[in-house]
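Kindly inspect what follows.
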Amino acid sequence: MRVAIVENTRITHHGQVGVALHEAGARIDLYKPWAGQPLPEADDHDALVVFGGEQAATDDHSHPYLPVLAQRMRQAAEAGRAVLGICLGSQILARGFGAQNLLDQAREFGWCEVTPTAEAAQDPVMRALPRPFPIFQWHSDTFTLPPGAQLLASSAIARHQAFRMGRAAYGTQFHFEANRAVVTDWSREFPQIIQDMTPDWPQRHAQQAPTLGAQADQHGLTLARAWVSLI
């Protein structure tokens, strides 16, 4: 299988998604449009992954590729290809399907509780997860649910945590790719940004990594493997 991965920022970890793709023997093509590289065409790959970034999904003035990426994600989804948008990627996918991006209205950071909807029990990706489950979050923006989307998970702060469009296009506001190694690297690379969001993060990180972090690692890999199986 041939998979396009779009990175939206300088420091991007593939984490559990990368593990599952490599397990499946995927051929991965990387795209970095924030650095001026072109975007993948909607029909050049079997699947499309779009990761997070510090920009908003509507920052067309600083990242003029964003509306094109939103359209490419929609085109791939409507063609029945597997599409995955994580955090910013989910916000771009929602934008592509006509949702409204809501800026700075849902701040979450750390291992947080997310609850699958009743419909998630029948979903090929989400059905293996418990209700609720811990997973890593890092965002301040959210979005309305796109018309025709299936809502698959919610949290107390951001109702639209996961959704599916069509056969295999998924958006997750939470960072299920972020295993404990990724979280540790983020904590080292972005200490001031994290402190502004969660001042007691160093203590919480040390306390929660062996428990909630270990559980989130397992849930993230379960989700990644299930999505890769749809390619």
